[in-house]
Amino acid sequence: MLSLFICKAFAQDSENFRVILKEDWQMQSALKVPAAGSAISQAKFTPTGWYKVNVPTTIIAGLLANKAYDFDPFYGMNFEKLKDSSLDKPWWFRKEFSLPVSQKGKNVVLKLHGINYKANVWLNGVLIADSTKIMGPFRIIELDVTKNIKPAGNNVLALEIKRPINPQKRGGDLAIDYADWIHYPPDYNGGIVNDIEIKTYDKVGIQYPLVTTSFDLPSLAVAHLTVDALVTNYSKSPQNVIVKGKINDHITFEKKVHLGPGEVANVTFTPTDFSQLNINNPKIWWPWQYGKPELNRIELSIVRGEVTSNTIAENFGIRQITSKLLDNASREFIVNGKPIMLRGAAWSPDIFQRRSPERQEQELRLYRDMNMNIVRSEGKLEDDHFYALCDKYGLLIMTGWMCCGAWQYPENWDVAKRAVAMASDSSVMYWLRNKPSLMVWLNGSDMPPRDTTVERGYLNIEAALKWPNPTVSTANESKSKVSGYSGVKMAGPYEWVPPIYWETDTTQKFGGGTWSFATEISPGPSIPPYESLIKFIPKDSLTSTAAVWNYHCGTGNFGTTKVFDAALIGRYGQPANVKQYIAEAQAQNYEAHRAMMEGYGLHKYHNATGVVQWMGSNPWPGLIWHTYDYYLYPAGTYFGMKKSMEPLHIMYSYSNNEVDIINSYLQKFSGLKAEATIYNLDGTQKYTNSTAIDVDPDGTAKCFVLPKSDSLSDAYFLRLQLTDNKGNVRSINWYWLSKKGDVLNWKKSKWYMTPETSYTDFSALQKLAKTPLQVSNYAGKGTDSTYHGVTITNTGKTVAYQVHLRALKGKDGDDVLPVIFSDNYFELAPGESRIIKCIYANKDAEGKLPYFLTTAWNLDVNASKAGNDAGFE
């Protein structure tokens, strides 16, 4: 038997069998296979010339894995070469497998977790379900194949899959949609997009455990747990069974259950009936920064007579998440009785739906490193490994249905599509309801379901299946006719706006950070560094006038970087070449994204309650809407976001020239010292001030207002530092400012941007006097990772601006990626030293000694000094 993952961990009297059919599948276009499903799904069929694939996989992902293309689809406009009429026709996916002899006589269930979009399912020459039943990528479909399975010898499963039709349009299929993010893959992600498994039962089975928590708030001393699960009688005769439960190996409970023929029922254990479910001093799951994301373990078994049919076990979190409206526009989320300010970014998997456990972990570590506490996904559900990582790392998840295409227009659904939608909602509730990271489910994205009966249908399902978290009708500010105010907003922008924008939306009409929960919002483009750009854009197209450049933007209103580029030239000056353009872009990305998160953090709970950057990850190499690029390179946007969300943070308010503190910890800090220093471009110190300050748990504090002065240069620097009462530096934050500020034209605002009447003037930064740096490195190598402490000192007389540290695979090598730097794109005052911590996985250095390359806007390369493992550019 090949490639079968067998779960036997909790077998008792009988082998508990589960197999995920993952490897050694074969895939081929139906145009090249004249045989019928009745022949293809038999062992004597020879799949000559078929592609070998692992599932989950889409059609194009399978072709890429087999190197069917002689080009990189991400380079230039090669994506257009993927178009192929065969993708519009069905494709076959075929798998041979066998069952252990011990499973003879058992009930056998085939479980499909994600077929995109329609399929005819054949097993051993028999059509067991056709495409009227197998439809929709978010449905979990169980098929009883007991009478079709061969208990000995090879079994053959064959799926004839047809891709979705027009998911991006009204009346299209309810599938995966990308709206205006990127170009659509020509297979529309057709294929197998989640697991396929075989499970066996001894007449009865149990699945979908749920542990719900209730505290006697504000006390967390006792957790009252309610346990639910779904039990099924797969036989045609009544069954008396015992359902047994165990939590953390020391809390046990059980009850007798009677099941009629074919009956499916929910079984519940309440803390009232089972006193052992009232847990003293529980291990509580907290979002990170608020506490530890402690995980507990639930195990449930179903026993018939003396035989244990099956056992399921999974992690869960003892936690309670609720929400409330502060006003009609602002919803506050509450975790274990504590309000939480939510700041994070949206998530999208690879454009071809390729899943890599390693990459998922790499990316979520980047989210954590930016100090985010929430991940939002829209209509692109992930796999179990992804959610397990979020559980482990304490990252909350906002997810729900897709916007803009077929999902948004239920009034156009026929009976079949409505059935797909309701079955999808039921499947997702069962699948995700016990995952501690799941914070909220959105029944709509850009608006509530336009057919009120659909929202009522969703809500009825969610109530019946005991979804334990808040549900919201929409990710925008619309009022649902069914469930009322959402308390969240999607009021833009999605295009570049200056830092002053985020605190000056005084009319509360747009995306400013003084009100509501912005579920998706962004200052637009994030230009990758040169080293990434040349991986997907030819060097002769590294300009915003090039078709290839614009092809790697979004679509529709977001098909260019014109707004961003006009601001960049207006604010920083005309760049002399592409590398200067990129340097200016990193500075502009840094300041805009930092100000967005700072604006929301400063006004938290009054009445800002959350903000989600659109987006965090990129599904392909792009120029807009990401915090790090497709190659996992962290640049200006990334470090602006990371700086703004550090848990104890000192900041500058653009709206009132004030120095403030944001505390994201649930502890008070007393005796902090806040310092501000202003430097002119020639490096002279023009102002300094400090004050002692306290800040409440999860609170903010105003320190002082900076005075206006005529002695400042046209552009100048502000250095802020926060020190705790033990003398430890907790935050250093630099701003570059100008006597001339950005001026917004609010009257001409559009749903995706607010234009400017005039720009601030940073052009003098191009003439900043050069300054030398000194670099030294300390390294410590662990089993899996290497740690570095890189000391960088400004030995000159002017501020070193936008110092950028890179870790290379040898002096002339590529960047080590992914890599975590404690800070980057930073400034150094004359004489100032910083130790920048760096960590990367040893395997990502590919056996090369790291070489640290340092750049800055005004670096004096010739006068700078470094050891053999570092240099300047």
Kindly state the percentage of residues in helix: 10-25%
What is the tally of beta strands? 52
N→C terminal distance: 57 Å
SS content category: mainly beta
Q: Classify the beta-strand content into a percent band.
A: 35-45%
Main sheet record:
7 strands, parallel
Overall geometry: globular
Strand order of the largest sheet: 30-29-28-27-26-34-33
Gyration radius, in Å: 29 Å
Helix tally equals: 11
| Arithmetic mean pLDDT | 94
Could you name the ranges where pLDDT drops below 50 across 5 or more consecutive residues?
1-15
List keywords for this structure.
single chain, 873 residues, mainly beta, 7-stranded parallel β-sheet, 6-stranded antiparallel β-sheet, 11 helices, 52 strands, 35% strand, globular, disordered N terminus
Task: Walk me through this protein's architecture.
The structure is a single chain. The chain is mainly beta. 14% of the residues lie in helices and 35% in strands. The chain is built from eleven helices and 52 strands. Helix 5 (415-432) packs parallel to helix 6 and helix 10 runs parallel beside helix 11. It is globular, with a radius of gyration of 29 Å. The relative contact order is 0.08.
